[in-house]
Design goal:
Layout lengths: L2 H22 L3 E6 L2 E3 L3 E11 L24 E6 L2 E6 L5 E7 L6 E9 L5 E8 L6 E6 L5 E2 L5 H10 L6 E2 L3 H8 L6 E8 L3 H10 L7 E4 L12 H15 L4 E7 L4 H11 L4 E7 L3 H8 L16 E4 L2 H14 L1
Parallel strand pairs: 2-8, 9-12, 9-14, 12-13, 14-15, 15-16
Antiparallel strand pairs: 1-3, 2-3, 3-6, 4-5, 4-7, 7-8, 10-11
Helix pairs in contact: 3-8
């Protein structure tokens, strides 16, 4: 048995122990519904089931570490209702579930899915956006150091920002909300793709709302061990989710927004090389020398600038810079 297998086994034993202990203390399984998305033909609904204290009220101003101290409920039955369809599923080892619902019969726009737990019958609602087949443009934006000042992945600073600082103190990158708004048409979808954990979903949703960013689904990940390693691959998570979007929405060409502090230039370059007809624009926020030092210990980007194979690309220090270059690009078109 490898180290990753040992870690996964220990994690699952600890989770089962936490669930039993919290149940004895009066806690109950509760679902969290993440923002779903889809087309008039099919939609994805996602969520997680955790043990929650029914007597406790969240204030939205907790220390960040509280988001990560959870007791997931594995292999519990869940029913998801969306439009005219009702589908049963079970949570996985980490308490997550994801279903694809076809034939839901919903018109384009924002709707609500209902999630019901078989144990206790608790119900939760999840927003779902149905994107019209007539829409031909969309945006995918990174989160950390692209729309929110985080300076990941340097471990000490990441721990401070994610675990110690209160969840309502995150700072937006200057001008990025306005830049994203300037890119999109009235119905164009915006997806927020991050290597951050699903535990931060509520915090990030509030951050996007409170700082004027366009509403849209978050595509996050789980930080736990996998069959092949102690931690999930952030770049691979982004690649998989990007390819899923290309498959789910074959009629949409995408604008990719990121920063040069992690792997966005490489990931976006690869996607452009594979699907040059599906990418309309790449916009990269360039971190300052100080931000690069804080992010990964060097004064320069950790990778070479991306090769976007003729796809227009913008580079700027913040959203105001990118918006200005976007205006210049449009005037020159």
């Amino acid at each position: 048995m490898g180290v990753a297998d040992i870690a996964r086994s220990a994690e699952h034993r600890l989770a089962r122990s936490q669930v039993r202990r919290k149940a004895r203390a009066g806690w109950e399984p509760r679902a969290t519904g993440f923002t779903g998305y889809g087309s008039p033909e099919r939609a994805r609904v996602m969520g997680r089931v955790l043990m929650k204290d029914p007597a406790s009220a969240e204030t939205g101003n907790e220390r960040g570490w509280r988001q990560f101290i959870t007791a997931q409920v594995a292999h519990t039955p869940v029913t998801v209702e969306l439009g005219s369809q009702r589908i049963g599923t079970r949570t996985n080892d980490e308490g997550y579930f994801e279903v694809i619902i076809t034939g839901h019969g919903l018109e384009p726009g924002w709707h609500t899915a209902r999630i019901t737990l078989a144990i206790g019958g608790h119900q939760e609602l999840a927003p779902v956006v149905i994107i019209p087949d007539t829409v031909t443009r969309g945006i995918v934006s990174d989160v950390d150091d692209t729309i929110m000042v985080t300076m990941l992945p340097r471990a000490a600073l990441a721990a401070w920002n994610s675990w110690v600082k209160k969840t309502n103190t995150r700072k937006p990158v200057a001008g990025m909300a306005g830049f994203l708004r300037s890119l999109r048409g009235p119905e164009d979808p915006v997806f927020y793709l991050s290597t951050g954990a699903w535990n931060t979903y509520d915090t990030l949703t509030a951050f996007i709302r409170d700082h004027g960013y366009p509403r849209g689904p978050l595509l996050l990940t789980d930080w736990g061990p996998t069959p092949t390693g102690l931690f999930r691959s952030g770049p691979e998570h982004k690649r998989v989710r990007l390819r899923n979007l290309l498959i789910d929405f074959p009629h949409i060409t995408w604008t990719l927004v990121g920063d040069d502090g992690q792997h966005d230039p490489m990931i976006y370059s690869d996607l452009v090389a594979e699907h040059p007809d599906r990418i309309e624009l790449v916009a990269i926020r360039e971190l300052s020398s100080r931000e690069h030092v804080l992010a990964h210990g060097s004064t320069t980007a950790i990778e070479q600038p991306g090769n976007y194979h003729g796809v227009p690309a913008l580079f700027g220090a913040d959203g105001d810079d990118l918006a200005r270059y976007w205006d210049e690009l449009n005037r020159g078109a």
